[in-house]
Give the backbone structure.
Amino acid sequence: MKYDLKLLTVDEKIQLLMGKNTWQTKDIDGKMPSVFLSDGPSGLRRVAIRLDEDGKPIGNYTMPATAMPAASSLSYTWSPELARLDGEVIADECIEKNADVLLAPGVNIKRTPLCGRNFEYFSEDPLVAGKLAKAFIEGVQSRNVGTSLKHFFVNNAENDRSYKSTEVDERTLREIYLPAFERALEAKPWTVMCSYNPINGVWASENNKILRKLLREELGFEGLIVSDWGAVHDMPRAVKAGVDLTMPYRELYLNELREAYARGEVTEAEIDECCERVLRLIELCESKDKEVKMSRNERHGAAKRIADEAIVLLKNDNNTLPLKGGKIYVEGGFAKKPPIGGGGSSLVTCDYSFVPLGELVANNLGDCCELVSANGRYTTTVDSKGARALPNIIAAALRADTVVLAVGNDSLCESESFDRTTMRLDKRQEDAIIALSRAAKKLVVVLYTGTAIDMSAWIDKVSAVVLAGYAGEAVNEAVADVLTGKVCPSGKITETYPLSENDVPVLAVDTTRPYEVYSDGVLVGYRHYDYYDKEVLFPFGHGLSYTSFEYSNLKIDKQGESDYMVSFDVTNTGEVDGKEVCQIYVSDLLSMVIRPVRELRAFEKVMLRSGETKRISISLSYRDFAYYSTAHDSWHVENGEFEILIGASSRDIRLSKRIDIQLPREKQHTLPQ
Ligand code: GLC
């Protein structure tokens, strides 16, 4: 090891346990380099100091960077390969702009659709979140840039996030909120970030059970635990719980640690344990082979490749899309300047110059398209502030064959540090949709949001809905390519779109109490709607295509006590080449405990030429059939019948077969009669 603990004084070791400012670790008077930690999940948000002509600091600014898709949009690709590419692109910019650790990915589960930060998280389902986060981490770290898997733990809302305790039972914690971290940890992130909130009454930054017993001892995490910024309230307790690095710098806390050490409340051994991991992180960041591999254009190309597969075709009545030509009227502020993400620490300063969506569509369609515009005195903009001068918009719509309206939420609506108050769009945007639906022959809504939307006011009035999401700086190029058929849409949503927000089990967190009880238990997202057999607008895993897929020849081979190989054919039965996300769900048909009707246990994305058939084979094992038994503090598979279901979404099941699992008696508890 290059940096030896023994060569440091106790006070130098204490100093190393806290940043020296907002973004960097201490360098102990030049004895070692400082590590620069920088956001974020959808691109590098590298804060730098602005200097005047005399070199005097005159404030901070965020360096421009490539705006990659937010995690929500990345998840709609269901592609670990693209998640890895995403990580590689951001790592490239970290190297270019001297950031050593990227504070990403966030894998918190989307428990409530109103969570302000849902755009920055992957899914309501832990498997999707875990698999994509793992690939993202592998991508970033393949370039010798570190990551920070966050926010550990059960931090699923923004309102009162810094003090509201999450009351969660052990089974829910292990079946819903932990698996995404477990799977992402397989990529060995250099750091894990502990969250702001208390868990069952103890701050995450002081929670021995969560940090030591669970994360370190049970899950075997050997990297560095960094606090969220300002999440430490008592540094001696944080050090004793194993928070290795407290961010940002705060002298008061450092002195409290010095005093606690002097009083013998914190031992040198405890300080050394944390300090050792800081030194190891410094060495990891010093690794030599870091080289920039992509040009800005190549990074944009990667952003476009991901965005192409992140766009979701939610509705397409009478094959409204793809657009073939004719008079097309494209309206909405986001058509000119799309939101690239939600607000807060993940928001990238994007220096990309956007081409208006209408122009991109016209370029794709060429002579067979004539763009209609609502010019004149009241030039219109329909954006998150809503429509103005509707009459002008309607007049233009009457002249068009198809109207494309870009609406959604901007970073003032979806953001870190506060939750939304409604799932609906801004009323004036809803009014614009409804008004245009009366004037337009065909109305296509393009939706720029990072989370589920209540569309009940207008969904029946529009011909098609394209979810642009927050797919980064290339979003409108991807939307134009999907609208015109240059790209066959393959994205699928990773959270449920309910019929209306009245159907949502957990909307806003209770702001009257200093705790949030996770009484919904394991029934989160589609697990809730399926269990209560509720109709939904668009189910988890839904996404349309311009082609069609047929599933056949399901075979299930038993390969062990609870090991099965599941294989089936998928055929592209349509006219165009396309990609399909095949989903495998498991259902425990008779259980002594409450269980979701079905749970996603595997998925595979496949590219199929028109007419082509491919055979998919996926293995299932013990954990795929198990629930977490708090009677035995272990995962448990009950003997009995299970159903394995193959679907194009959680509600579009194409194939299924029952199996009967009979584990030896010693592996069973009391069995259902
Ligand atoms: C913020 C966020 C965290 C971010 C950190 C640094 O409060 O919770 O995700 O990485 O502080 O900006």
Residues 376-380 have pLDDT under 50 and may be disordered. The longest helix spans residues 268-285. The chain is about 25% helix and 25% strand.
